[in-house]
Write a structure and sequence with these properties.
Helix content: 10-25%
Shape: globular
Enzyme class: transferase
Distance between the termini: 57 Å
Protein name: Threonylcarbamoyl-AMP synthase
Number of strands: 11
Number of helices: 8
Catalytic activity: L-threonine + hydrogencarbonate + ATP = L-threonylcarbamoyladenylate + diphosphate + H2O
GO biological process, one term: regulation of translational fidelity
Membrane topology: Peripheral membrane protein
Length: 282
């Protein structure tokens, strides 16, 4: 897809690429994988399509509209900008396997505080974290009481697992102060997972909306908050139906408790029971 020069001029960040035929490659395909999990009061994605003009219009962002310098496609070509922004303590907005979310370095107290400010959320409300791979979870939470392969069966996907931090957790104490547990996500979305890996840390993750407002399945849904993000990454319209991840408490040996049904409750419960966990009714 080749953009005319006039359209290229309206895309400040990408204009240089589209304005010169020799470097015009068009926008690459979005690559997102549908999944099945969730986060403690969190969110995420799924989709695969080309970023044509029709896709922009799907979210109410036609080519005739003003596109800010901060909006970029959620593709591998732009993941390095996201990683650098996170390392610099900035907040970014990204698609996941369920909803759009705000993300930042979970070990940066300043960045975490900024997310609370953007959402207008009380700092007593906990944030979940996102890591790149299931094996990374043990850096931040206690997992040795869980059945073998349980986490690999649940994740990646639209599920948030709540675990104890433990003494070996490298998370900053300023994240969710006073809580001994932490909600952890591994979204089935390669874009955000690459960012988490590249950051060398965990991402604090929460839905991209004002506290108490409907969740966002399109960047237009939270357009009023774009200005507070270093970058807004557009992954198109997400098919989640505004359902976030399923949140399950796995802090007790041999027990589970569903804290939020979310988008994958039935599948999650089936996996938990297959691993001989019993529902905690306390």
């Amino acid at each position: 897809m080749n953009f005319p020069a006039k359209i290229a001029e309206k895309l400040p960040v990408l204009g240089a690429r589209f304005a010169h035929p020799s470097s015009n490659r068009g926008l690459p395909k979005l690559r997102f994988l549908n999944s099945r999990k969730h986060q403690i009061r969190g969110f995420v994605l799924g989709l695969s399509t080309k970023m044509e003009a029709s896709d922009l219009k799907t979210c109410g962002l036609g080519l005739g509209d003003r596109i800010t310098r901060a909006v970029l496609p959620a593709t591998e070509d732009y993941v390095n900008e996201a990683i650098q922004a996170v390392k610099q303590g900035k907040v970014i907005a990204v698609p996941t396997d369920t909803l759009y979310g705000f993300a930042c370095d979970a070990c940066s107290a300043e960045a975490v505080h900024r997310i609370y400010e953007i959402k207008g959320r009380k700092q007593t409300s906990p944030l979940a974290i996102c890591v790149g791979d299931v094996k990374d979870i043990e850096r931040f939470a206690v997992t040795d009481h869980l059945p073998n392969d349980l986490l690999d069966s649940l994740l990646p996907g639209p599920v948030t697992v709540v675990l104890m931090r433990g003494e070996s957790s490298i998370l900053e104490k300023s994240l969710n102060p006073g809580l001994d547990s932490i909600g952890v996500r591994v979204p089935d979305s390669e874009f955000i997972r690459v960012i988490a890996r590249g950051s060398g840390s965990a991402l604090a993750l929460t839905s991209a909306n004002l506290s108490g407002q409907p969740s966002s399945v399109c960047i237009k849904d939270f357009e009023n908050l774009w200005e507070h993000c270093k970058y807004v990454y557009d992954g198109g319209l997400l098919p989640s139906g505004r359902a976030g991840s399923t949140v399950v408490d796995l802090t007790r040996l041999g027990k589970y408790k569903i804290l939020r049904p979310g988008s994958a409750m039935e599948e999650t419960v089936a996996i938990l029971q297959r691993h001989s966990l019993q529902e905690d009714r306390q």
